[in-house]
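Re-run with default settings, no changes from the original entry. Doing this only to confirm the output is reproducible before filing.
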Amino acid sequence: MATIMPEGEDIQKAIKWVSMNLEEKSDQPLHKLVEKAVFKFDLSPVDTEFLIGFFKKMKATT
């Protein structure tokens, strides 16, 4: 099943950044990475909720 990517460049960069960090060290708490990504990429509340949901869905399918 394909995941729909949001159109905003910042949220796409945030997804890639969090994914890269999880690949490097998978035991990092997701909420801490999301928190860092929110500030690093200046995400809106809607983008933040999408990011959280995206990784929770990904974790549920693995």
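The mean pLDDT is 87. The chain is about 70% helix and 0% strand.
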